[in-house]
């Protein structure tokens, strides 16, 4: 794709974000768009958000679980950026009208105390660089009409980032088996999903290592103090005004979010 096309698509996605509207899938209009092109579009979208005053507070890994892959028809992980405008506190109410077509994912968040720069980052490196892990919700959202996405669409759209909520408890990553810890996802008091840490590329630690190594090949570090969302542990759940969600992760804690 030409630089002009990349800039135009990034601006189009930014306008859709601000207007809470959707656009036609990029892959319908540009059949030759590559994943590399899509990451360039993502960078333009990121640039526009930073120009508007937001700052990068972390990174996210998307499409790590088979459940999400099957729901979206996307069969490889991707990554996006977490920005200051995406952060909500535990129990804080989120206006459903501020999002477009949101879905809730229960995840494990990593808070880093050291930089991680791949390639060559190992499981042990991730644990050594992690200050703590926390239960969290990522509320994914898509500026692409009806979630009709291919990998290039979600990458360009900042890995379908919406907002995220961290729980109120932080534990050492060595205090819990992050592969076998179980997750229960509740919506309005009813259990709607279960999963385990292994759903995210075999372990959330593997997912963070994948991200560090993937970014490292681009010269981008995971930085001390950043939040890293390691991927959904069960299928995404549609969100509507009035919904209350809770995720509980064995050995780590819980996180609640409500929509108005």
Write structural notes for this entry.
Strand 8 and strand 9 form a beta hairpin. It contains seven helices and 13 strands. The protein is globular, with a radius of gyration of 17 Å. The termini are far apart. It has 260 residues and is of the alpha+beta class. The model has no long low-confidence stretch (mean pLDDT 93).
CATH domain class name: Alpha Beta
- The SSE order reads HHHEHEEEEHEHEEEHEEEE
Number of domains: 1
User: Can you summarize the main beta sheet?
Assistant: 8 strands, mixed
Architecture, according to CATH?
A: Alpha-Beta Complex
Straight-line N-to-C gap: 40 Å
**Roughly what percent helix?**
25-40%
Number of helical runs?
Answer: 7
What structural class do helix, strand and pairing data support?
A: alpha+beta
In brief, what are we looking at here?
This protein is α+β, with helices and mostly antiparallel strands and 260 residues long.
Describe the SSE topology.
Layout: H1 3-19, H2 26-29, H3 35-51, E1 56-62, H4 66-72, E2 78-83, E3 87-88, E4 93-94, E5 103-112, H5 123-129, E6 130-140, H6 151-156, E7 163-166, E8 182-187, E9 190-196, H7 204-216, E10 227-229, E11 237-238, E12 244-249, E13 253-259
List keywords for this structure.
260 residues; alpha+beta; Fumarylacetoacetate hydrolase, domain 2; 8-stranded mixed beta sheet; 5-stranded mixed beta sheet; 28% strand
């Amino acid at each position: 794709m030409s630089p002009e096309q990349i800039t135009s698509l990034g601006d189009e996605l930014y306008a859709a974000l601000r207007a809470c509207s959707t656009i036609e899938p990029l892959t319908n209009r540009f059949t030759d768009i590559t994943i590399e092109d899509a990451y360039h579009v993502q960078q333009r979208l990121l640039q526009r958000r930073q120009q508007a005053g937001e700052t990068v507070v972390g990174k996210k890994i998307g499409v790590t679980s088979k459940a999400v892959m099957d729901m979206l028809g996307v069969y490889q992980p991707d990554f996006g950026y977490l920005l200051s405008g995406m952060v909500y506190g535990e129990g804080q109410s989120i206006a459903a009208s501020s999002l477009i077509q949101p879905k809730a994912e229960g995840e494990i968040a990593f808070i880093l105390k050291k930089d991680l720069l791949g390639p060559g980052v190992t499981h042990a490196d991730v644990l050594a660089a992690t200050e703590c892990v926390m239960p969290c919700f990522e509320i994914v959202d898509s500026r692409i009409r009806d979630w009709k996405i291919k990998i290039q669409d979600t990458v360009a759209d900042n890995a379908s980032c919406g907002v995220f909520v961290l729980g109120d408890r932080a534990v050492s990553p060595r205090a819990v088996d992050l592969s076998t810890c179980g997750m229960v996802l509740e919506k309005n008091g009813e259990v709607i999903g279960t999963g385990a840490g292994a759903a995210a590329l075999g372990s959330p630690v593997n997912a963070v290592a994948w991200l560090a190594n993937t970014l490292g090949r681009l010269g981008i570090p995971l930085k001390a103090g950043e939040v890293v969302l390691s991927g959904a542990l069960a299928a995404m759940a549609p969100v509507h005004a009035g919904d209350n969600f809770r995720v509980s992760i064995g050995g780590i804690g819980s996180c609640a979010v409500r929509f108005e």
